[in-house]
Design a protein that fits this description.
Distance between the termini: 26 Å
Strand order of the largest sheet: 1-2-9-6-5-3-4
Largest sheet: 7 strands, mixed
Order of helices and strands: EEHEHEHEHEHEEEHHHH
Number of strands: 9
Oligomer: single chain
Structural class: alpha/beta
Number of helices: 9
Shape: globular
Length: 233
């Protein structure tokens, strides 16, 4: 497992990177002082793949787990959907100390992050990104927002997560197009921030395409460090 710190004084947090980390989430949450009730926000596709695994591992460690699901797609990043989630959180008696776990890609991370930032003036947010783009970009830095009308991300805040858990094993279930989108962001980091990293990507492109987990761990780690440095500045 790799660990990257995002140093933001009182808002600092760690990014955990490795394979099989979903099953360790409960331990990591306890390590960060969490206990009792928590809420997972995800979509049906990700829930089918990883929702039960995560929920069961958390329940085995004594957490009271609720799962809220929103349909897949960019159109879910809307105030109407956020409003429905507020109602469902209220129905679950979620309190100010109840963490929200954002399990999914960038849409879920943005939507769940916005809800966490605004429900009861802010509840703890845990980002659990399951796409390459979310692992190297959108889960880091605290930019959370919803769309309004035809405009993207027009209503939002900066709200840092308490922890980011990037399980590279989830990348094996990504559609090829989604993986390519994330890889473009990784290459951009090499171009703008680290020529040695860019050369590493060139040398290992076949291993990246074959989803070699050691190489995936390396590229998520190095990309996260570059993004963390930008966020800190």
């Amino acid at each position: 497992m790799r660990e990257v710190q995002v140093g933001l004084d009182s808002n600092s947090y760690h990014i955990l990177i490795g394979s099989g980390l979903l099953m360790q989430t409960a331990y990591r949450l306890k390590e960060n002082g969490f206990a009792g009730k928590l809420v997972i926000i995800t979509n049906p596709v990700v829930e089918k793949l990883y929702g039960d695994i995560l929920k069961q591992s958390l329940a085995q460690e004594g957490f009271e787990v609720a799962v809220l699901s929103v349909a897949d797609g960019e159109e879910q990043k809307a105030l109407e959907v956020a409003g429905r989630l507020y109602n469902e959180l209220t129905g679950l008696y979620a309190e100010r100390a109840t963490p929200i776990l954002a399990l999914g890609g960038g849409v879920i991370g943005d939507l769940a992050g916005f809800v966490a930032a605004t429900y009861m003036r802010g509840v703890p947010l845990i980002q659990i990104p399951t796409t390459l783009l979310a692992q190297v970009d959108s889960s880091i830095g605290g930019k959370v927002a919803v769309n309004h009308g035809q405009l993207k991300n027009t209503i939002g805040v900066f709200y840092q997560p308490r922890l980011v858990v990037s399980d590279v094993g989830t990348l094996r279930t990504l559609p090829a197009g989604e993986f390519t989108n994330g890889l473009a962001e990784v290459i951009k980091y090499g171009v703008i921030g680290d020529k040695e990293f860019f050369a590493y990507l060139e040398r290992n492109l076949d291993r990246i395409k074959s989803l070699d987990e050691k190489v995936l761990e390396e590229i998520v780690d190095r990309s996260s460090r570059i993004k963390a440095g930008m966020v800190e500045k």
